[in-house]
Amino acid sequence: MKHVSILPLHDGTLTSIDSAYQLFSRVNDFMRYQGKPVFYDIEVVGLTEQTKLSGGLYTISSDKTIQNLRKTDVIVLPLLCGNFQTAIRENEPYTDWLIDQYRGGAEIVCLCVGSFYLASIGLLDGRKCAVHWAARNEFAAMFPNVNVIDDAIITDEGGIYTCGGSYAYLNLILYIFEKHCGREISILASKMFEIDIERKSQNPYAIFIGQKNHGDEAVLQVQNRIESHPTDVYTLEDLCRMVNVGRRTFERRFRKCTGNSIVTYIQRVKVEFAKKHLEAGRKTVNEIVYETGYNDVDSFRKVFKKYTDLTPTEYRRKYAARTL
User: Fold this and answer.
1) Measured between alpha carbons, how far is 138 from 259 in angstroms, rounded to an integer?
2) Which parts of the chain sit beneath pLDDT 70?
3) Same domain for 252 and 287?
4) Gap between the Cα atoms of 87 and 7, Å rounded
């Protein structure tokens, strides 16, 4: 039997704590139905007997406090809301206990942006961490020693599991069930809770948000030019001349500031332009492709799929307005 400690972190969301508790408990029910011993001993483990969550809107009771729990096997960190800097500061009292438990063999299951706290205590340094696409820029700026992953839903490295997406934590918990109890139990949980077990990527859901908090006016000028004229055809030489900076120097500065090459940035902006028109559903795919400035439809399809994991047609089928 594995002991599961769900931590009611400051600014943790009640939904993620309750969902984790219910899912782990349900696996025990599955085991009972199959005539097997229960697998998880689940407890909410806090700093005190009562913890306020989500900006003080809710209060949750702890089964134990960290002071009277010597050993646990799995630690679940909930999704956080509010200001990440505040959450990091307020949750600091958990740090020594959490690090000691991890060094003693406990696994850490980090739900979505709960990773901001985990990164702040150094346990993600040099590791991969899945981050929600909308939080990527802020996370990368705060924790440069962490290998940020904003396309995959889940990472698994050294007994630490992370996920990107507010409800992608459901997929992460299914992944944990498969590791602990086998594929059959994970599939059963997927069916009972109607969770898409095969969801692996954030790309179909992501909206490209260029990193602009860098202070380089020349780079910012080019970013704004690309974003305000997404259908224009650019050459690198034209953009470099616009800011009067040599190509090699400017390409280096642009990548350092934005995390993307200039070519990649242009492609991603054009893909976002195409996505909006595909969602509207009024123009053909070919018409939209030509509007982006591409003359080769097949070439744009490859670029589109690179960033969304879907073809333009598949994207339209998924997101275009429809009547029931």
Assistant:
1) 12
2) 54-56, 322-324
3) yes
4) 13
